[in-house]
Amino acid sequence: MKNYELLTVIKPNLDLDEVDKVIAKIQETIESFGGKVSSTDKIGRKKLAYDIQKFRDGFFTTQVLSIPADKVEEFKRQLKLNENVLRIMFVEMAKTQVT
Questions:
Q1: CB-CB neighbours of 16 under 10 Å
Q2: Sign of the Cα pseudo-torsion (53, 77, 17, 63, in order)
Q3: Would the pLDDT of 96 be above 80?
């Protein structure tokens, strides 16, 4: 399994409990694909560079996760189907070498 970092922008009109539910749902989806979440960081509410679905800001979270490579496309599709997620950025983490 490869390591990835997921940046998620969640709709700002949700309260903190609903944001936590969205994050928990994302984590459940990762685990259902045989992956695991190493860390979750709730960055908070930030202003967007441009409006997305008529929202000027969003709640940002990052998650470091590992998931099988053959499940990545389906995972991204599931994220796009979530109506509370405005945007995602899903990147593979570089392998660091210790010298």
A1: 9
A2: negative
A3: no
